[in-house]
Specification:
6-stranded parallel sheet; 26% strand; 9-stranded mixed sheet; 10 helices; single chain; Rossmann fold; Dihydrodipicolinate Reductase, domain 2; alpha/beta
């Protein structure tokens, strides 16, 4: 019996939409049959580049005319929840694949999960670093106890919490073995009217996360120099970090006098193949399933929420809205340097 070929519809035809179209079109078990974007020029370009027959500027029309098995959502984060819920409620798809960040608020991510679970739709989010060989090797080594019990992990990045921070925090969780986060305390500064793909973002921030077992995760974004080395895990019996020059994982434990460099194993799969295996029922879940991905959203929003309530945020997070938006809109976090600007997609008034 021939294996099913899954019919894919892409929504959002920018850079990530083209990347996803290429991946799904090249997979032997999937066929991209339609693409949609509010900009006709963008969807035509993607369709021509990847031989996609269906071209749409209205997703509802695409849902009505195309018999889709998978909806792949590569839009900006401000509309991902709305589109996901719409696809779940108004199609017979078996899977929805989305990009990161999952949404623009924690509440939106919960709405996405609820809509999909109600219809039995499998939802996955593109945190592709969970398939990186270095990260997978680091996770394995930590689980095998090469540095004893993990105690702290440091991550450093920039260009906005919902932009790059979503990768960093999800990567932190993955490498540590996905321990349950218990509480968060954070600090955020937003003196300028800074946006990222039409969602408000901060000028800088930092967060301290306490995971089960007392493991601490430290994240900082756009803070002044000097910066910490953002790839280190400290354990009770040693230290683990990346070796950029050698492409391996460096380990120094109490039994050795020198650093060991461990070459990572080749990845067994990628996020798209694992998604197909999940749809086929060959595996129990996807490592980027919606509930797992929502934890990164929860941690990011908890960093903002800590500033809003001026206290530690106990998890699970109860605030559904984006706390940064709440603070700006109620005047408690005023813009001191007027002039809005978007760091990824310039506003019309930006040069």
């Amino acid at each position: 019996m021939a294996e099913k070929i899954y019919r894919v519809g892409i929504i959002g035809c920018g850079g990530m939409g083209n990347s996803h179209a290429k991946a799904f079109q090249s997979h032997p078990r999937t066929e991209v049959v339609a693409a949609m974007d509010i900009k006709l020029e963008a969807v035509k370009k993607l369709a021509e580049s990847h031989s996609v027959p269906g071209v749409y500027t209205d997703r509802k029309e695409m849902f009505e005319k195309e018999d889709l098995d998978i909806v792949d959502i590569c839009t900006w984060q401000s509309v991902r929840a709305e589109i996901t819920v719409d696809a779940a409620e108004n199609t017979d798809v078996v899977g929805i694949f989305g990009e990161k960040p999952m949404a623009a608020s924690y509440g939106e991510s919960l709405d996405m999960i609820e809509a999909c679970e109600k219809k039995g739709i499998k939802l996955a989010i593109g945190h592709q670093r969970r398939f990186n060989s270095l990260n997978t090797e680091a996770r394995r080594l930590i689980q095998e106890g090469v540095i004893g019990k993990p105690q702290a992990m440091l991550r450093r990045d920039g260009h906005g919490l919902l932009n790059r921070g979503t990768h960093e925090l999800d990567e932190m969780c993955y490498i540590l073995g996905d321990p349950e986060p218990l509480w968060v305390i954070g600090q955020t500064s937003r003196e300028t009217d800074r946006w990222e793909r039409r969602v408000r973002t901060e000028d800088l921030c930092m967060g301290l996360i306490c995971f089960e077992g007392g493991i601490r995760g430290v994240y900082e974004s756009d803070l002044p120099e000097p910066g910490l080395r953002g790839d280190v895990v400290y354990g009770s019996d040693g230290i683990l970090r990346r070796s950029g020059a050698d492409g391996g994982v460096m380990v120094l434990n109490n039994k050795e006098t020198e650093w060991q460099i461990i070459k990572p194993r080749k990845p067994e799969t990628n996020q798209y193949q694992e998604f197909i295996d999940w749809l086929d029922g060959k595996i129990e879940t996807h490592r980027n399933n919606g509930r797992r991905a929502s934890i990164a959203m929860e941690l990011m929003m908890a960093i903002y929420e800590s500033l809003r309530i001026k206290n530690v945020v106990m998890l699970p997070l109860e605030t559904r809205e984006n706390p940064l938006d709440l603070m700006v809109e109620d005047g408690s976090l005023p813009v001191l340097k007027p002039g809005r600007y978007d760091i990824r997609a310039p506003f019309p008034e930006q040069n």
